[in-house]
Design goal:
Chain lengths: ~400, ~550
């Protein structure tokens, strides 16, 4: 069994000392988990290493940490996988080759939450507060039936993906939007929201969506960085759930929020449809003035443009954008625009929107759902979706 | 000093259900848990929850299956209560928001489960416990004005007044190490089982028998402690659970020769016989040389259509991939019987009352007894909810007629001293983890699927020795903030008390019934042993053994075959 150099970020508020790296060499199988290594240290060397843990099978959600810079559960992250990532963000240890340990594994507490001790963070202060924010319980559709609600199996399987969230906080840890805006409701709580908005038994779909559309820290505060999708150990794909909330809010309930989130998103879609490429010069006018070429003549657009002038001028001065591009946009090679328009037509003419849900459509690299769908075409529209299509908006 | 009408210790399914039920009556409720409630081990329950809700099914059928599953050691009055109330409980959960999977008509869907004569297991993929636990926590958040939560508070002692009545608890806030007295008119223990007394176990690291030992120490009677369930499908090596739902969905068990060996042991129910029967069959195959070299047999999930596996058994697909490196949708996975559940616990009646006035117990910590010698899969979630609710209701009703007791704060200094003594232990003792490992390995060797007098005697001697060593076990952490080391030392004492009760019960029962199979007494002996073994504390000596009758209402014991 190879040796691993385990570096644990330690902090004890009792000690009056600042945080430090605590190093141990552990001999374990590469397919042992990072938690196995931490517990080996705790059991055999130093019982004071603080980490929450219980089930050791990625179900209780206790052991969320950062390992070599990436958040996840210590219990289902193999040593060889963590080691292969190389040192963490604050690494001071050079990568080893040949000599010395098989890998260096740096374990730190999760981000975006205050550290209580060692690897233990204050989830109440951030994570659970945000969960509380989204009215996290079913508001029953009336009348409540005497027996169970009759609802399609597909709906229940669909929301099982968000129900599978174990509240570990890994997505919150590395949410970039939350880093910039600590008030952002965040990936976990918004995924939890989809669990109600996608539940036919809930009575308040529109109110929930309106609330989180109008909140400047709500669904339109996400910047699509994908960090939460990478972080999630349970394939909940929080960002995908946020996008689904947006589609339900904007397309189904026609909620046009005062933050211009929905119009801004629409502007991207219509710009690419009209020009084949993003036209930055028209993005603001369309977002604020309405979704057409005439948007720029709307007073709101003018006001927004005026306030953005310093940014525009800096961009031009630094050569990020030329006055010509700023005025007329990029040029697309001939034929491409027609191909793009064809794509739009194909997707927009579908009778039903396709949603990616792993519980329904299997893994991304799984050839089977497509084959199944082909065998029973027309019956199971969800099953036809593939990763590339469903997140294209 | 918090004071509540009802104080609940433990916030898994039983505790949270008790809290919601008690709060509904207007009582003030406090719920204390050493972990955040959603980390409670109920979260790991996978396969489902039983109820005769389908119009073609009957509660009597469910009750009979449970009685037969218990090898006639279950108390039939309690089983009747549980099975009769099960359908309403499922509907309550459904209305509270549990995302039960449906059938093609949109009604609640069911899957087959072991030892059941009908498909009556309601489920959410293979995360049923998780889904219910998180939905109950949603309800706790909704009712946070009536249920006061104390998350990450560790209970060190139960308090009694001069008459022996339980009047609260002393708990330590893990955040800052502060101890406080929790006054209460009634106390409900819902702190789960004692799986960590075994190694390996499917149970999480937090499942250390705290409540069982705390109640035992203040004089509550334990019952059926010898009845330890070995789950038929746990991973070789780390002991992680593969849900019975896999077999419920159609997976097969195969020995190393590729034979579907359950045809020999349970020709009718095959893989879906009771857990004790399947575990014994597997262990027999392994012992007789028909297992794989790693001491296992194989579970073949490829019999289940891949698409169905990905939808309904996704969690074990992940467990196979992450913890065994096996894609269970493509190849069989090696499994063996592993410690999973304790049918025994604190003796209670159908309202959760223990033998200590003012003290209630519900869930795995308790023994009503509805599981008797062997619990049916998907009956434990039901047990937690039915008896959690009943305890909550009864305790609240009692509390509303009482005045608030109070405990002198001097009790806190006693508890503080006890913790300081642990911290101040001189070097030279063994490490807590070392003692715990020896305990777990001993129990798993001598008090497992097959038992005999010699092994049990040996186990008892080792447990007695470990009980002497444990008070000298050393710890490293001297801090106040999240000192998990000191908690570990206290938990070790709890586990040792539970282990001794288990071994004493197993030694006492000189017959084979349910999960207790004595190779030296291989037959069931109704004439002498159709009775419960009760265990109670006897100072520092070996616990006292007594007996109580099994309640039989309508099902006389018969020969048990599957």
């Amino acid at each position: 069994m190879p040796d691993y150099l385990l570096r644990i970020r330690r902090y004890d508020p009792d000690s009056g000392k600042t945080a430090y790296w605590d190093e141990h060499t552990v001999t374990l199988n590469p397919r042992n988990s990072v938690l196995d290594a931490i517990l080996k240290v705790r059991n055999e060397v130093d019982g004071s290493v603080g980490i929450r843990c219980s089930c050791q099978q990625a179900i209780c959600g206790s052991c969320g940490v950062r390992m070599n810079g990436r958040p996840g559960l210590a219990c289902n992250t193999h040593l060889e996988v963590a080691a292969a990532r190389g040192g963490g963000a604050q690494s001071t240890v050079p990568q080893t080759d040949g000599e010395g340990p098989a890998g260096v594994i740096e374990v730190e507490p999760m981000g975006n939450m205050p550290v209580i001790r060692d690897l233990i963070v204050d989830m109440d202060a951030v994570h659970w507060k945000k969960i509380q924010r989204v009215t996290p319980y079913l508001i029953n559709r009336k009348p409540v039936p005497e027996r169970e609600y009759i609802v399609p199996h597909e709906n229940m399987v669909d929301i099982t993906q968000t129900m599978a969230c174990i509240q570990c906080g890994a997505c919150v840890s590395d949410c970039l939007s939350m880093e910039v805006d600590p008030l952002f409701v965040g990936p976990a709580a918004l995924a939890k929201t989809y669990r109600f908005v996608g539940d036919p038994r809930d009575d308040q779909h529109e109110q929930r969506l309106r609330d989180l559309s109008e909140d400047p820290h709500g669904i339109y505060d996400c910047t699509h960085c994908f960090n939460c999708i990478d972080a999630c150990p349970k394939e909940v794909a929080p960002m995908s759930q946020i996008m689904r909330l947006r589609r339900r809010a904007g397309s189904d309930h026609k909620i046009v929020d005062s933050n211009n989130g929905h119009r801004h998103e629409d502007a991207f879609v219509t710009l690419v449809r009209d020009y084949g490429l993003l036209n930055e010069a028209e993005l603001l006018p369309r977002s604020y003035g309405g979704n057409s070429w005439f948007g720029k003549f709307h007073p709101a657009a003018g006001k927004e443009l005026l306030s953005s002038l310093p940014t525009v001028i800096t961009g031009v001065l630094r050569g990020k954008v030329s006055p010509k591009i700023a005025m007329f946009g990029h040029k697309l090679p001939g034929g491409d625009l027609a191909a793009i328009k064809k794509l739009y037509k194909k997707i927009e003419s579908r009778p039903q929107r396709l949603e990616l849900n792993l519980y329904i459509s299997g893994y991304e690299d799984d050839p089977e759902p497509a084959a199944v769908a082909a065998g029973s075409s027309g019956e199971a529209p969800q099953a036809e979706s593939s990763a590339s299509e469903s997140e294209s908006s | 000093m918090p004071s509540h009408d009802v104080l609940i210790i433990g916030a898994g399914l039983a505790g949270q259900r008790a809290a919601l039920a008690a709060a509904r009556t207007g009582a003030t409720v406090g719920i204390v848990s050493k972990v955040h409630p959603v980390r409670s081990h109920s979260v790991a329950a996978a396969g489902g929850i039983n109820a005769a809700l389908n119009p073609e099914d009957t509660w009597e059928s469910h009750a009979f299956d449970t009685v037969k599953g218990s090898d006639y050691l279950g108390d039939q009055d309690a089983i009747e209560v549980m099975c009769r109330e099960a359908p309403d409980e499922i509907l309550w959960l459904e209305h509270a928001g549990v995302t039960f999977h449906r059938n093609e008509r949109g009604n609640l869907g069911t899957r087959a489960f072991g030892g059941a004569s009908a498909a009556r297991t309601y489920y959410v993929a293979d995360i049923t416990g998780h889904a219910i636990l998180h939905v109950l926590y949603e309800q706790l958040m909704k009712h946070s004005d009536t249920v006061e939560r104390f998350e990450e508070w560790f209970t060190t002692d139960l308090l009694q007044d001069g008459d022996g009545r339980c009047i609260g608890a002393i708990c330590r806030n893990l955040r800052d190490g502060r101890l406080d007295v929790f006054n209460a008119k009634t106390v409900i223990l819902a702190s789960g089982g004692a799986g960590q007394a075994y190694k390996p176990t499917t149970n999480g690291l937090i499942v250390t028998g705290d409540g069982i030992a705390q109640a035992y120490r203040i004089g509550a009677r334990l019952m059926d402690m010898e009845m330890i369930q070995y789950h038929p499908t746990t991973l070789v090596g780390n002991g992680l659970l593969i849900t019975e739902g896999a077999r419920g969905e159609g997976a097969w068990l195969l020995n190393a020769k590729g034979e579907r060996f359950m045809e020999k042991y349970a020709p009718n129910k095959l893989e879906l016989a009771s857990r004790d029967v399947v575990s014994r069959a597997e262990q027999t195959e392994i012992n007789e040389g028909r297992g794989f070299p790693d001491g296992s047999v194989a579970l073949d999930v490829t019999k289940v259509p891949r698409r169905r596996t990905l939808e309904a058994l996704r969690e074990i697909v992940n467990i196979g991939r992450d913890f065994a490196g096996v894609d269970i949708t493509r190849e069989p996975i090696h499994i063996r019987p592993g410690q999973h559940y304790i049918m025994g616990g604190i003796k209670t009646d159908v309202d959760g009352r223990t033998t200590v006035p003012g003290l209630y117990a519900a869930g795995e910590v308790a023994c009503v007894s509805v599981h008797g010698g062997n619990r049916l899969g998907a009956n434990s979630l039901l047990d937690t909810l039915i008896f959690g609710r009943r305890s909550g209701e009864h305790a609240a009703a009692q509390a509303l007629q009482m005045t608030m007791p109070s405990t002198p704060l001097s009790r806190v200094s006693d508890a503080e001293r006890a913790i300081q003594e642990i911290i101040d232990r001189p070097a030279g003792g063994r490490r807590v983890s070392e003692i715990k490992d020896e305990l777990g390995e001993t129990m798993n060797r001598h008090c497992a699927v097959f038992r005999d007098a010699e092994g049990l005697q040996k186990a008892h001697e080792i447990v007695r020795r470990l009980k002497e060593e444990a008070p000298r076990a050393v710890i490293d952490d001297r801090g106040t903030v999240f000192n998990q080391d000191v908690i570990g030392a206290i938990e070790l004492g709890f586990m040792l008390d539970c282990a001794e009760a288990i071994v004493v019960g197993a030694k006492e029962r000189t017959e084979s019934r349910g999960a207790q199979f004595r190779t030296d007494f291989p037959e069931r002996n109704d004439a002498e042993w159709l009775k419960h073994i009760d265990i109670s504390v006897n100072g520092a000596d070996v616990p006292k053994v007594s007996y109580s009758p099994v309640t039989i209402t309508r099902w006389e014991p018969q020969e048990r075959t599957y």
